Amino acid sequence: PNLPNANSYTWSIPSSWTINSGQGSNSVSVYVSNWVTNPTIYVRPNCGYGSRSKTLAVSTFTLNITGPAEMPADGTFRSFSTNYYSNASSYTWTFPSGWGMGAGQGTSNVTLYANPGASPGYVGVSTQICGQTVNGQKYMNIGYGGGTPALMAEENENLIDEIFTSSIKIYPNPTTNCVKVLSDQSKAIEKVELYEVANGRLFDVKINNQNEINLLEYPSGAYVIKIYTKNQVTTRKLLKQ
């Protein structure tokens, strides 16, 4: 308050803070540059009154991550976000093995994707607010997020289950060398991609005039094959022996 006979006030604040304006008056504006636990502010008028102090309540910053309940391992993007603080430094996001980021690193909103064969685990975010490190995390399972089947290729007694119903088939499956794509004449094949589950590698593969794909140079293991036609993308699991 403004005290009688007081024409000047001396303010004392934590050393890492700065008084922007008001020193000498009965109110000040303070810039908080670093986090201080239970900070105390002192003020002394010049008219013989003793100094007064006030210990401030400390605000607690939290980073809660919102996003899908589980992550489909099919390479599609999903949005994640956390609490936005105007005085926060850049947000740093982390994610499990086999995942990737589309956009948003450094901000409070990102898009992430999980490749076939990706691991479950924690999506994490970290930032600095007034010198305090604040962290948040959310555990994510790999599954059927948003109703989209996860494209997890797995071996099952030398058989590979198909996970989409389509007129496009691949044969033989499993295979040791070549695989033939069976399609009706109305669905001309435009492009074929092959994803190696074990190492996370993506290949553009060539298909000949007989709709055959030569896999001789590729290592044995589980793959996800994507077949592009004019208005459709068909996904199949494939086992190379």
Task: Describe the SSE topology.
Layout: E1 9-12, E2 18-21, E3 29-31, E4 40-45, E5 52-55, E6 70-71, E7 78-81, E8 92-94, E9 99-103, E10 109-114, E11 121-129, E12 132-142, E13 169-171, E14 178-182, E15 191-196, E16 201-205, E17 212-214, E18 221-229, E19 232-240
Parallel strand pairs: 6-12
Antiparallel strand pairs: 1-4, 2-3, 4-5, 7-10, 8-11, 9-10, 11-12, 13-14, 14-17, 15-16, 15-18, 18-19
Helix content: under 10%
- H/E topology pattern: EEEEEEEEEEEEEEEEEEE
Envelope shape: rod-shaped
Our measurement of the CA-to-CA distance between the termini, rounded to an integer number of angstroms, reads 84 Å
Count the DSSP helices. 0
Quaternary organization: single chain
Structural class per helix/strand content? mainly beta
Our Rg estimate from Cα atoms comes to 30 Å
CATH topology of the largest domain: Immunoglobulin-like
- Low-confidence segments: 144-165
Which CATH architecture of the largest domain is right? Sandwich
Report the CATH C-level class of the largest domain. Mainly Beta
Strand order of the largest sheet: 6-12-11-8
Mean pLDDT: 79
Which percent range describes the beta-strand content? Answer: 35-45%
- Please provide the count of β strands: 19
> What is the makeup of the main sheet?
4 strands, mixed
